[in-house]
Amino acid sequence: MLARRRRPIVLIDTRTGARQPYWAELDATAADRPDRQALIIRPARNLAENTRYAVGLRRLRTATGAPVAPSATFTLLRAPTPPADPALHRRWEYTQRALGSLAAAGVDTASWTWPGTSPSLADAG
User: Fold this and answer.
1) Of all helices (H) and strands (E), which one includes residue 99?
2) Which single residue of 2, 55, 56, 58 could bond 10 by disulfide (Cβ 3.0 to 4.6 Å)?
3) pLDDT (tens digit, 9 = 90+) per residue, 22-72?
4) What is the separation, in whole angstroms, between the first and last Cα of the chain?
């Protein structure tokens, strides 16, 4: 098992900084199209209701071992100043919060990040 600090995927509760267990796999239905194959990250236990989580991906590699560079858009979103494009401003705010939560939890610079909130069971009905 990879040491905690070296894991390429991190899933944390943004309020507590607690790491959540997960498992990940490549989408087997797109195995014939590796350029379109999604990485699926699944929590290993139910996430708390109405709780904000952040997923950080770091030190990603291709199948050949080459580093995966962050997209141009993500590079803009993780910059300390808001992007000039007003359409990206809200996404920049969410990304900054997610990166701050990851940093507070001891996660080094992420190449990619996704913020999100788990749904309420009351909302599911």
Assistant:
1) helix 89-104
2) 56
3) 999 999 998 898 878 888 999 999 999 999 999 999 888 887 899 888 888
4) 39
The string of DSSP codes covering 16-28 is T--B--EEEEE-G
From residue 37, how far is each of 17, 33, 69, 107, 108 by CA, in Å? 30, 6, 16, 26, 26
Positive/negative CA dihedral, 18, 23, 27, 31: positive
Average pLDDT over residues 84-89: 91
Helix (H/G/I), strand (E/B), else coil: 54: strand
Question: Which residue in this structure is represented by tokens 């007003």?
Answer: 86
Measured CA distances, 76 to 41, 84, 92 (Å) = 24, 9, 8
What is the token pair recorded at 33?
Answer: 């199209």
Q: What Å distances lie between residue 47 and 58, 61, 76, CA to CA?
A: 22, 28, 29
